Amino acid sequence: MKCTVCRGPAVIDVRRHNANFCAEHFAKHCREQVGRAIHQFDMVHPGERVLVAVSGGKDSLALWDILLDLGYHADGFYIGLGIGEYSDESGSYARAFAERRGATLVEADLPGDFGFDVPTGSLAARRAPCSACGLSKRHLFDRAAIDGGYDVVATGHNLDDEAAVLFGNVLRWSTDYLGRQHPVLPEGHGFPRKVKPLVRLGEREMAAYCVIRGIDYIVEECPMAAGNRHLGYKEVLNEVEAQSPGTKNAFYFGFLERASHLFTPEAEAEQLELRPCERCGAPTPNDVCAFCMLVERAARR
Ligand code: SF4
Ligand SMILES: [Zn+2]
Ligand SMILES: [Zn+2]
User: Fold this and answer.
1) Which ligand is located closest to the Cα atom of residue 224?
2) Average pLDDT, stretch 232-244?
3) What is the number of the ligand closest to the CA of 135?
4) Which of 114, 168, 187, 277 could form a disulfide with 193 if both were Cys (CB 3.0 to 4.6 A apart)?
């Protein structure tokens, strides 16, 4: 197998692009794909400060690495979720990366700052762990970005993630979620802009990128993810992709080109109904936001 660019020995094939790459040209390919996504969807403008949501996993660390290499002012933001050893370990990968790259890592800690961890919050709110966790993460990312004066929050969702979420939303015709499934959500109504610069890269590519670049990341899945519906959707899509490479890409980008605009008015109308939370000021459709309710329920427990 030879590198499509330089004819040297290739280390990875990317069937979707019908290409093979050596280590050097693969890293370049990843940077180019991120650069193209940023440009194509107008994600980050020159001089803007980016806050990268870092979990200690391959995607977010690869994203941070690429943004730094592309010359962006990108700081990391890590949240301790209190998920036992998984959180301890993932935090140390995020810190080690920041130290190695001389980059700034901002941290928040759910148990330390708010008195509950994801397992407790999930029980207290009678929500699935990933629901309580996702809600907390979104709230804390938004807040950290606004408090820290960042222009944009970047997350490491890759093509596999976005295709799986889209698949789930289409299966249920969750039109409100479909309206928000764009790789850029504009700032406004009390939210910072949110972008997903890895949408042109797959999960396997991100793992390979980390290996090639010598980035250590947490390999284990979060123990709370078991039974998570998205994992099942990913498996289904992987089977389809193995039969016909490029399907995930066509599914996701076809949606963005041809259908996503049909659902945005509903999502925008929902935003207009938001007002500041009585307790923390975050935008919410109710008097008190879902995160403050979660904090209160967890404290009662
Ligand atoms: S798998 Fe669920 S609980 Fe674990 S970090 Fe992800 S969203 Fe949170
Ligand atoms: Zn090459
Ligand atoms: Zn609140």
Assistant:
1) 1
2) 95
3) 1
4) 187
Strand, helix or coil at 246? coil
Q: Does the beta carbon of 197 lie inside 6 Å of ligand 1?
A: no
User: What is the secondary structure of 51-108 as a DSSP string?
Assistant: EEE--SSHHHHHHHHHHHHTT-EEEEEEEE---HHHHHHHHHHHHHHHHHHT--EEEE
Ligand 1 in reach of 23 Cβ (< 6 A): no
Quickly state the pLDDT bin for 136 (edges 50, 70, 90): very high
Q: For residue 226, what pLDDT is reported?
A: 82
Q: How far does the centroid of ligand 2 lie from the alpha carbon of residue 3, in Å?
A: 5
Q: What are phi and psi of 206, to 5 degrees?
A: -70, -40
Determine whether the shortest distance from the Cβ of 134 to ligand 1 is under 6 A. Answer: yes
Look up the CATH number of the domain holding residue 121.
3.40.50.620
Asked if the model's pLDDT at residue 227 lies above 80, the reply is no
What's the chain's average pLDDT?
Answer: 96
Q: Has residue 14 been placed in a domain?
A: no
The residue segments making up the domain with residue 81 are 44-300
> Could you tell me which of 67, 276, 101 has the C-alpha nearest to residue 190?
276
Is 37 a domain residue? no
Averaged pLDDT, 163-169: 97
CA proximity to 78, closest of 110, 114, 119, 31: 110
- Within-domain flag for 16: no
Supply 132's token pair. Answer: 């309580």
Domains: count for the chain: 1
Q: Quote the tokens at residue 32.
A: 């180019």
How far is 262 from 175, CA to CA, in rounded Å? 9
C-alpha–C-alpha distance, residues 210 and 131, integer Å: 28
Averaged over 264-284, what is the pLDDT? 92
Q: Judge if the beta carbon of residue 129 lies within 6 A of ligand 1.
A: yes
pLDDT tens digits, residue range 176-209? Answer: 999 999 999 999 988 999 999 999 999 999 999 9
